[in-house]
Amino acid sequence: MESISERIYYKTRWLITRYPCQEAYERGEPSEVPDINGPVGSMLPAHSIIEGNLLLNEGIQAILELITGISTPTKWDSGNARIGVGDNSTAANATQGGLQAPTNKAWNTMEATYPSRSNTTITWQAKFDANTANFGWQEFTIVNVANDTGNNINRVANNQGTKVSGQVWTVNVAVTLS
Q1: Contact, 94 vs 61, CB < 8 A?
Q2: What is the Cα–Cα distance from 51 to 155, expressed in whole angstroms?
Q3: Is 80 exceeded by the pLDDT of residue 1?
Q4: Cα separations (Å) of 101 from 7, 53, 59, 139?
């Protein structure tokens, strides 16, 4: 008799898109932006992809509670979900409660039509405008309230450069279960 292998596969893809200004964002024209911490003349790409992250225990527990109806934690829906960014490079650990930065961190609400689902993939997307999150982007999370006091699904630490005033950056997170 064949044995059955029981596994859930979880795959996450983070897409950071950079716009030099609000007008470029409105036109849908991402482009390279100056890398203020790199060598003179260096640029950050219009798009950066981060593959993977770590699920956080608090997020896993809340998801299981939602599925079973054991309790009613806040959903990661269009009215509650936020994507958070911060400037802390500490490696992700399942026991963390979201962003680790002590001060330079920000959360933004979902753009219109997000989150969305296609088959077994859920996608969240948030925009950080010209005046928001102007610091080094080194960590990312999805949380179900306006800050880290909620349940964070996941966290990844990955240096994406420094966003400066005037630039607009978006974060798109696609989570696939299979």
Answers
A1: no
A2: 12
A3: no
A4: 33, 17, 19, 8
Is-contact 14 1, C-beta < 8 A? no
- DSSP-H helix ranges across 12-87: 22-27, 57-68
DSSP 3-state assignment of 7? coil
pTM to 2 decimal places: 0.95
Between CA 78 and CA 46 the distance in angstroms is 26
In the chain, % of residues over pLDDT 70:
99
Residue with tokens 């030099």: 20
Residue type, 146: A
Backbone angles phi, psi at 88, to 5 degrees: -105, 130
- Paired strand residues for 106: 85
Contact present, 169 and 108 (Cβ < 8 Å):
no
Identity of the amino acid at 24: A
Omega of the bond leading into 115 within 30 degrees of 0 (cis): yes
**Torsion sign, CA atoms 128, 19, 21, 86:** positive
- 3-state SS, residue 1: coil
